[in-house]
Design a protein that fits this description.
With 482 residues, this protein is mainly β. It has two helices and 48 strands. It has a domain of 66 residues: Thrombin, subunit H (Beta Barrel), CATH 2.40.10.
């Protein structure tokens, strides 16, 4: 009787495990296992549980699309998945409670040419509560791991190398944790948080990117249009563009979708190490020159606006949204706009009204919306205004920048920024007209620049302009230049 009870307990513990070999997969590195893998995923969709790949090499063809998984685990641990075609591998759509872990995702023949019409080794869309852990992505025709329009996502302890676009790419997603990953040889951003500003898409907000190792990528970490983001404790070494860019980006906005303001706000770059950024490199067999000194290759850390027409690294106070925002006049002679703009309108904020720049002089939230005053007369017949493309509430604290070939930090058009206790060593190796300012804060207002150390022990000293600040109402104290 005791043995029977024990056997029943073991059976119950094993219930829910699905083994891909039970569906005919050989895992010998030669046989086409596509149909077996598809059948195993179909069973996982209907029953849930854990899909296991025993150690082996499983060959499959093309992109496999899996939709509607719930409370499921895909366990590749010990297995190598070999895509026989130069395409994406697994697309998980409309899943909830999904874990993908372990294994190596690669190709029969390693891609050397990008195919950006295809998808990615791991692509997750319109899903919730997704965890991707311990996966090794070796080669990709596009992104390595891509997450689109998802909520509550963890990408942890993964290794990505020889990627022909972004290593890890999040777009229009929320509540993101990206930690402990290693990205090597990616031909675009190593880790990207993107909000394109499309009016119908959810915002990219609330993300932590921590303790990742990035080496030899086109760019390091990117925050484009996202809000409430923390970059902390990352090591970013040898990039062609910046090690970290925080940008408000107009290049991808589509006015027909209601795009107009994807302002970056509340971003913290804390305790990271940036080594040899903004330099020439060979990536995935291609030698690339660092010609981005006037763009996001201007510095190891770049905080700026990117204009749709004019290009990179601009002061957002001088550029405005392509979408107009309606206002009405109040009896007090002030203006009233929709309450959704309450975070956008504050004293000192620059906007364009009737084709002229104006500054907000006062602002308060009322039951009818946001009431504000400006320092310019409003021409008759004008009913809309455009917002400046600034960034707000950005903290750059306790970072170390070593041997940047361009500037150390370049910040443009940022309001309420704190640049505190950062260390810049032996920057400006290229010594061009664009790279000679080591710590530069141009435009914006209400900036604190405190306790930073700018040091050059070379002969000659290449820190031509160690510290340059043109922000309004800037507090500059306790900085060391040696």
């Amino acid at each position: 009787m005791r043995n029977f009870i024990f056997a029943m307990a073991v059976s119950l513990l094993a219930f829910g495990d699905i083994h891909v070999r039970d569906f005919g997969a050989k895992g010998d590195g030669r046989t086409d296992d596509t149909q077996a893998v598809v059948a195993a995923f179909d069973r996982l969709k209907s029953e849930g549980g854990v899909l296991k790949f025993a150690p082996g090499k499983y060959v499959f063809k093309g992109l496999l699309k899996v939709a509607g998984l719930s409370n499921s685990v895909v366990d590749f641990s010990g297995a190598t998945l070999l895509n026989a075609e130069q395409k994406g591998s697994f697309h998980f759509d409309k899943c909830e409670g999904l874990t993908i872990r372990g294994g190596i995702l690669t190709y029969m023949e390693m891609p050397f040419k990008g195919n950006f019409s295809e998808e990615h080794p791991i692509y997750v869309t319109d899903s919730k509560n997704v965890r991707i852990e311990g996966v090794h992505v070796l080669g990709s025709v596009f992104m390595g791991i891509a997450v689109n329009h998802c909520n509550y996502v963890w990408v942890v302890n993964c290794r990505l190398e020889r990627i022909l676009r972004d290593g890890i790419h999040f777009v229009h997603s929320q509540d993101i944790t990206c930690t402990g990953n290693h990205v090597f040889q990616a031909s675009d951003d190593a880790i990207a948080l993107i909000d394109y500003g499309h009016g119908k898409a959810q915002r990219t907000i609330r993300a932590i990117v921590a303790n990742n190792i990035i080496r030899e990528t086109y760019a390091g970490m990117s925050c484009v249009g996202a809000q409430d983001v923390i970059f902390q404790g990352n090591h970013v070494e040898r990039t062609i563009l910046s090690g970290c860019q925080v940008t408000t980006n107009d290049r991808f906005a589509r006015p027909a979708d209601g795009a107009g303001c994807t302002r970056v706000a509340r971003v913290k770059v804390i305790g990271n190490r940036f080594v040899e950024n903004c330099r020439d490199l060979e990536l995935n067999g291609v030698k690339i020159k660092a010609n981005g000194q006037a763009s996001t290759g201007a510095a190891a850390i770049v905080v700026a606006y990117i204009d749709f027409k004019e290009g990179w690294v601009r002061d957002g106070d001088k550029f405005f949204t392509r979408m107009g925002y309606k206002f009405t006049r109040t009896e007090q002679g002030e203006l009233m706009a929709d309450a959704s703009l309450s975070e956008e309108l504050f004293p000192g904020r620059v906007l364009s009204i009737g084709g002229k720049s104006a500054s907000v002089t006062s602002a308060k939230v009322t039951a009818k919306g946001i009431q504000f005053g400006i320092d310019q007369e409003i021409p008759e017949g004008v009913e809309t205004f455009e917002l400046g493309r600034i960034l707000t509430d950005v903290d750059i604290v306790d970072n170390e920048v070593i041997r940047s070939y361009a500037c150390g930090l370049a910040m443009y058009g940022t309001y309420r920024a704190r640049i505190i206790n950062n260390r810049f060593f032996n920057c400006n190796s290229y010594d061009t007209q664009w790279t000679q300012t080591i710590l530069g804060v141009m435009g914006g207002q209400d900036v604190e620049i405190l306790g930073n150390w700018i040091h050059d022990n070379r002969d000659p000293n290449l820190h031509r302009h160690p510290l340059h600040v043109s922000a309004r109402n800037a507090r500059v104290e306790g900085n060391r230049v040696e």
